[in-house]
Each structure stands twice: as C-alpha cells, then as structure tokens.
Design a protein that fits this description.
Radius of gyration: 28 Å
Helix content: over 70%
Mean pLDDT: 84
Number of strands: 0
Largest sheet: none
Length: 340
C-alpha cells in the first residue's frame, strides 16, 4: 500500500502538470473516496501514506474543494492527521469548521492554539466538540462572545479549571441564560452554585421600578455640559456622584459615571433604566468604585426603599464580580454602542 501510494504521488504530479487544477480536483475526490472506503481496514502506516498524498493535493486546491474534503474526513476516526490539521488551521471558516467541530484527530495543543487566535466562527465550531479539555474550554470562555460561551457552558463534554468556572460565573452576571445553563451542570463548584442562586433570588425579588420618562436628547446634553463644566473645577469621584444623586441630579451622576468608565453616556442611562441592577453593576465595578454608588443608584431608581434581603443579594453579586471581568463586560457592551 505504501509503495503504491508513493508511485501514485509521482503519477499525480505528472497528471497535474498536464491537466491543471481541474485534473487535481478529480484526483483528490477519487483518492479521498478510496481512503474513506478503506479506512476501517487501514493501519497507521497506511494512513500516513494517504496523508502525504492527500495533503500534497489538497494544499493547492480552492476553498470549495478543501471544505468538501474537511466534511468528508471530519467523522473518520483514523483520518489522516496532517490533512486534518492543515484543514483545521485554514483561515476560511467553511474549510475549518467540520474538522474543528467533529474530528478526533486534532490534539489539544492545536485546538488551544486555534482558540487563542481565530475568530468567533472558529470558536463556535470548537465549542460544539463532543470532548473539550480544560485547556481549550477555558480559552473559549475567555475569548468567546455570548453565543460561544453559552454553547460551551451547555456542552456536557466540556471541562473547566477552577479559573474557567470563575470566568463563567463572572459572565453570568450579565447573562441570565448563561446562569441557567451553568446551574444545570453537575460539575459546578458549590461556591459558584451558591452565587448563581443569589443572582436568581435578586432577579425574582427585585421590584418593578417606577417608570421614568424617556430620556430626551436635550436633557442628556444638558447633563453632559454640566458634568464637563464640573470636571474643570473638581475631580469627579465617587463622593461627588453620590452627592449629585442625593441632590436629585441622577442624570448628571450617570453621565459622570460613564465619563469615568470611558463609555457612552447613553449606555449608563440605559443601564439605569433597564429595571435591573445587573447592567449597572459592571460599569460601577470596572472603575473600582465601592458599594455605595451602586446602592445609591439602585435606591434612587425605585419609588420605595428596596427590601433589605434584595440589597443583601445585590451586595453579594457586587462582591462576587471581579474588576477584570467587569472591565471586559463593559468593553464589549461599549463596542456595541459605538458601532455605526
């Protein structure tokens, strides 16, 4: 078999020289069919011989042919390792997706490298794998957008380090669906399960806020002018914002908060008006402000004093969110506000 394939490689080179890419495409399909038919009966040495020939052909093929090859090899347990790896590292998502999602021939080091550098489409494909080791799953949580993170959190074959679970918990502060997925995992650490239960109680107990009139652009502009003027006179800090809130200047305090966090003013206003403490929490935490500012804004938003048990749970949520995780959430949310 090995000698025959070596001879075939020479024949292929001659045929390609005479027939061009069209000829090569036909040869690749025929050789792949031969491999898939014989795969259950091939040893590793024979697979390695196929590997060399198919890789030689596939590297010069166009994206459509490589995507077809990826689909055909993705579910074969002893697929040629070199070919599978070459397809997985292809920047074209249609080519890489099948083997990233399904091939068992990829090693964890390659998956981790790809998870560290590729875009969200590639990460989404990896999140679907039947088995995800912690070294890969943790990177998907760190780099993935919400769709990726939810998928990997709901994947029963994914395993996480303690740090990975902590990052998932941080992401769940702003994503109720993710929190529900985590709560269903049997391997969830006990302390994180308790934190998620606290979040759920807060959401259930939080009173419906008194409806606020819609923000008028001139009101927001006036608040921004006020804050800009004040910033030239004093250093705006947590104490200044709390004083504004107590004086009824909530809009000004929100603009000041946004200014310190480096986010659009409208983002802070929308977070305040959302009816939940959750969107405000990462903004406050990202600039290392203490509990008082979040408590003051939560209290100012409702007509009645919030129940003590609710404020206790909000405090626990505040203390459980790391500054680094809060800053990552704020950057992602701000980017959506800034998109044209």
């Amino acid at each position: 078999m090995v000698a025959a394939l070596a001879s075939l490689l020479t024949d292929i080179e001659d045929s390609v020289a005479r027939g061009g890419l069209g000829r090569r495409d036909g040869l690749l399909r025929g050789l792949t069919t031969l491999f898939t038919d014989e795969a259950p009966r091939l040893g590793e040495d024979q697979v390695a011989a196929f590997d060399a020939v198919i890789l030689h052909l596939a590297r010069e093929m166009e994206d459509a042919a490589r995507a077809e090859l990826s689909e055909r090899l993705a579910d074969i347990p002893n697929a040629p390792r070199g070919v599978v790896r070459d397809l997985a590292f292809d920047a074209v998502l249609a080519v890489a997706r099948p083997v990233l999602a399904r091939s068992r021939r990829l090693v964890d080091a390659d998956l981790a490298a790809l998870a560290s550098r590729r875009g969200q489409g590639h990460l989404l494909a990896m999140a679907r794998r039947l088995v995800l080791k912690p070294a890969v799953a943790d990177i998907l949580v760190a780099r993935g957008e919400p769709e990726v993170v939810r998928l990997v959190a709901g994947n029963p074959g994914a395993r996480f380090t303690p740090q990975g679970f902590m990052a998932l918990g941080d992401r769940a502060f702003a994503d109720a669906d993710l929190g529900q997925m985590l709560a269903r995992r049997g391997d969830l650490p006990a302390d994180l399960r308790l934190r998620l239960a606290n979040f759920a109680r807060v959401r259930a107990a939080e009173p419906t806020p008194t409806p606020l009139p819609p923000v008028r652009s001139n009101a927001l502009l006036a608040a921004e002018v006020f804050v800009s003027t004040q910033a030239r006179r004093v250093d705006i800090d947590e104490g200044v914002l709390i004083a504004w809130i107590r004086a009824g200047k909530v809009m000004e305090a929100l603009v000041g908060l946004a200014r310190l966090a480096g986010v659009p003013s409208q983002m802070a206003v929308d977070a305040y008006e959302s009816g939940s403490y959750e969107p405000l929490l990462p903004i406050v935490r990202s600039i290392r402000f203490g509990w008082r500012i979040l408590s003051s804004l939560t209290t100012a938003r409702t007509a009645d004093e919030p129940p003590p048990e609710m404020m206790h749970d909000v405090m626990q949520a505040f203390q459980g969110l790391s500054v680094v995780a809060a800053q990552a959430q704020v950057r992602a949310a701000a980017a959506r506000y800034r998109r044209p």
